[in-house]
Design brief:
The chain is mainly beta. The chain has one domain: TolB, C-terminal domain (Neuraminidase, 6 Propeller). The chain has a four-stranded antiparallel β-sheet, with no helix packed on it. Strands 5-6-7-8 form a four-stranded antiparallel β-sheet, with no helix packed on it. A four-stranded antiparallel β-sheet has the order 9-10-11-12, with no helix packed on it. The longest helix is centred in the C-terminal third of the chain and has 7 residues. About 3% of the residues have low confidence.
């Protein structure tokens, strides 16, 4: 399973779940294992302004230049249920999410949180009550954070103040199926729309799709695929290449089979507008 696509230093990097690998691939398709992540699922990657790689999981880790992974911040007083998605903004603030419930056990999914780690190493919770918080983007001016609430089918926005705190929570767009998301220079967001077979009731519908939407939910562009799309990123030399990561999602009861069959894919499509903001 492929997740957390990020364009970095001329290549697409991604988390290779199940294999515990952090992989980089160029536009010709040549890939390289760059580091190792947790063996399980649900972890993601991003970079600090100084180029060090951050990896989420049971704790937030930093990969040092010698390849060693060390704790970046102690977040255990916020939650001990692990950390999922991550975004580092232009000021070096690190935002990480936790779904804060046992996904495989099916407990209520309305306890998700966002934590902030500031450049001085201090951490605190800055949002809560999220329904499975997933991918995040920060606008180029560092003024707004947009996050996908997967189980609510919406994108939610917050204002970011000078200290990194979040306020003015509001619905940015609804009727979606967001996972990893990305923003372009026109302020539109590329986001998943969920399994279209479920929404249409037709088995011949595409299994996955991403849409480019404005604030308010107006759909501008769409890309469909025969597998579930777990994330998207804008990259390439001019950031006009849309990268999609996909897999044959069959539900949590078939995770082991999906991982064993290695159905993950990295796809590309042209984008009408270049990427902007973070990641």
């Amino acid at each position: 399973m492929v997740e957390s696509p990020r364009w970095h230093n001329g290549r697409l990097w991604f988390a290779h779940w199940g294999a515990g690998e952090i992989v980089a691939v160029d536009l010709e398709g040549t890939s390289e294992v760059m580091a190792h992540g947790p063996e399980g699922l649900g972890w993601t990657i991003d970079w600090l302004p100084d180029g060090r790689l951050l990896v989420t999981g049971k704790q937030l880790l930093c990969v040092e230049p010698d390849g060693s992974a060390v704790p970046y911040a102690d977040l255990s007083d916020i939650t001990q249920l692990g950390w999922n998605d991550i975004v580092v903004d232009g000021r070096g603030n690190v935002y990480v999410t936790s779904i804060a419930f046992d996904y495989l056990a099916g407990k209520p999914p309305d306890a998700g949180i966002i934590a902030l780690v500031t450049p001085d190493g201090k951490s605190r919770q800055v949002a809560g009550g999220l329904r499975f918080p997933n991918g995040m983007v920060v606008t180029p001016d560092n003024a707004t954070l947009i996050i996908g609430e997967s189980f609510a089918g919406r994108l939610t926005a917050f204002d970011i103040d000078a200290t990194g705190d979040l306020s003015n929570r509001r619905v940015w767009a609804e009727g979606l199926g967001p996972d990893a998301i990305c923003m372009d220079a026109e302020g539109a967001v590329w986001t998943g729309t969920g399994d279209t077979r479920l929404s249409t009731g037709r088995d011949d519908s595409p299994a996955g799709a991403v849409a480019r939407v404005r604030e308010g939910g107006e759909e501008l562009n769409r890309v469909e695929h025969d597998r579930s799309i777990l994330g998207c990123a804008l990259g390439g030399p001019d950031r006009r290449t849309l990268f999609l990561v996909a897999t044959e999602w069959r539900g949590t009861d078939q995770l082991d089979k999906v991982l064993a069959e290695r159905t993950g894919q990295v796809l590309t499509a042209p984008a009408p507008t270049p990427g902007a903001g973070w990641p």
